[in-house]
Every structure is written in C-alpha cells, then in structure tokens.
Amino acid sequence: MIRELRHIHAFLAVARRGSFTRAAAELRVSQPALTVQVRQLEAQLGVSLFDRNKRRVALTQAGRDLVAPLERVIFDFESVIANTRDFVEHRRGIVTVGALPSIAAGLLPRAMKQLADDHPGIVVRVTDALAGRIAALVKTGEIDFGISSQMPTDRELTYHHLVTDRLCAFAVPDHPLVRKKTATLRDLVAYPLILLVKESSVRDIFERALEKEGLKISVAHESIYMSTALGMAQAGLGVAVLPESALQVASHPALRIVPVSSPALTRKIGIIGKPGRSLSPAAAKLVDVLRQLARH
C-alpha cells in the first residue's frame, strides 16, 4: 500500500527526469531524501522501480507499468483538491432551497441575482411550497435549508429570523373595508373571506387569532396559491387575508390593502434548518445574502 503522495511524486519526477539529481532539484528536496522516498515506495510495492548504475537511471518494466496509473492518481487527487477549493471559495456549488411562494417570488430571486453576480459558478435550485412541505424537505435532507414561517413547537428544526410579514386584507377599491386605515378581526368577519388552505402558515395564524377572540368566519373561497386568492379578490368574490408580501407573488394594482389590527397579525419568516447539520459554503453564502437583503 502506498502510504504517502510524496512517494508517488518522487517516483514520477525521477521517471520524467531520468536522474535523481534533476528530480531532487525539481521537487526542491535533497537527493538523499528523494532516494529514501523512492526506496520506501519500492519497499511498499515489493518491486524495483529503477535500474541504477553510476551513469544512468532507467525504469524497470514494473516501473514503466506504474507511470500512467500513478500519473492518474496524482491528476485525480489534484482535481479533487481544486474542486474542493472552488467549493470552499464559492466558485462553484449547488444549493437546494425550499421557500414559501411569497418569498420564492420576492426576496429569494433578488438574493439569487446578487449571488449569481458575485459567484456565477453557484447554482440555486428552488422548490416553492407551503410551510409543512418545506419542513418535511428539510428533515429528510432533500433541501439544504428552507425559508419558511416559524414553527416553534418543532424541535427537529432550527429557526433563524429573517423578516416579519404583516397580514392584510385585500379588497376591490369600492369595498367598505377600504375606507378604513386598518381592519380589526371583527371588521373582517362581517364579510365573505378568501383564505389560503389550512396547511398554510397564514391560515394558521389567522385562525388562532380568531379562536382567541371567539370569532367565527364565513370562508367564501380557499386557495393553495396567493396569486389565485388575489385574483379572486380582484374579481369581487370576497376579501383576501394574506401577508403583505403577497403582492410580490402577483401584481394586482386594482386591489387595495388594509392592514389587520387589534390585534396586529404578523408572520415571522426565517431560515429553517436541521439541528447538527452544517450548510455547505455555497448554501451559507446564499443565507448571508438573504440576511443582507432582509436588513434593508
């Protein structure tokens, strides 16, 4: 078994130069040290690699047979080192991230653009999904990290805060709610509501607040996607209760936004990870960019 790469380097240098003296100069080691390294390699392999006399050094048949395979070993090793250096220095890498639809349409693309400008060798693959699906993907390791709402009761996930998103009512311009600066929960329950499905974090926050206030609602329509809920609201089918960032998903200039107050409802968005699992350098760089953009 070959125990050290320097033994391979020593052998290949002598094979190239046909001289221990010239090989030692190339590798910047003493000739006696180089000779010891070659002899150690021969002892490890159990064969003589060179025929030596006072006038010349020639490869034995075993030595000739080993040149090409050992050159490949050095090439493959150096390729691994170069790829690892590129990986660590953010010159290349693949990041898999899951994000809530509002984040996948707003904050995340801006972060991806900045990352691509600074580190064009990094590829980001995005899965947009609801909070429950993102949590499952993080737990199974199918994505490097998620950008999702806080799930404080789940000990299998870590959470690092990124942004806070407030819930608002979205309605057509002639809707009675639009005349108000803010809308209370009691204001909202008087109208047919358009909500996201129960698996969404927004729906969960809203229903928890209603339960606390002892209020019941009339759900006119449900939707998986915020863009669909906005379209329904624009069509006059009801009042959509969504995070303010919903307008990053789809632009509906005809809609008016009324913040929900008394109580104010907010959704905390952060980086979701798995305890004990370190991010790759590329993934960590994307997180850094996301945090920079979130601060601004």
Number of domains: 3
Unreliable residue stretches: none
Question: Could you tell me the number of beta strands?
Answer: 11
SS field, number of helical segments: 11
Helix content: 40-55%
Order of helices and strands: HHHEEHEHHEHEEHEHEHEEEH
CATH class of the largest domain: Alpha Beta
Largest sheet: 9 strands, mixed
The CATH architecture category of the largest domain equals 3-Layer(aba) Sandwich
CATH topology heading of the largest domain:
D-Maltodextrin-Binding Protein, domain 2
If you had to describe this structure to a student in words, what would you say it looks like?
The protein has helices spanning 5-17, 20-27, 31-45, 61-88, 101-105, 107-118, 131-140, 185-188, 201-213, 226-234, 281-295, and strands spanning 50-52, 57-59, 93-99, 122-128, 145-149, 158-171, 193-196, 219-223, 239-243, 256-259, 266-273. With 296 residues, the protein is of the alpha/beta class. It folds into three domains: 5-88, Winged helix-like DNA-binding domain superfamily/Winged helix DNA-binding domain (Arc Repressor Mutant, subunit A); 93-162 and 269-295, D-Maltodextrin-Binding Protein, domain 2, CATH 3.40.190; 164-266, D-Maltodextrin-Binding Protein, domain 2, CATH 3.40.190. The strands form two sheets. Strands 3, 4, 5, 6, 7, 8, 9, 10 and 11 form a nine-stranded mixed β-sheet that branches. A two-stranded antiparallel sheet has the order 1-2. Strand 1 (50-52) and strand 2 (57-59) form a beta hairpin. The longest helix is centred in the first third of the chain and has 28 residues, at 61-88. It is rod-shaped and about 105 Å long. The two termini are 57 Å apart. The model has no long low-confidence stretch (mean pLDDT 88).
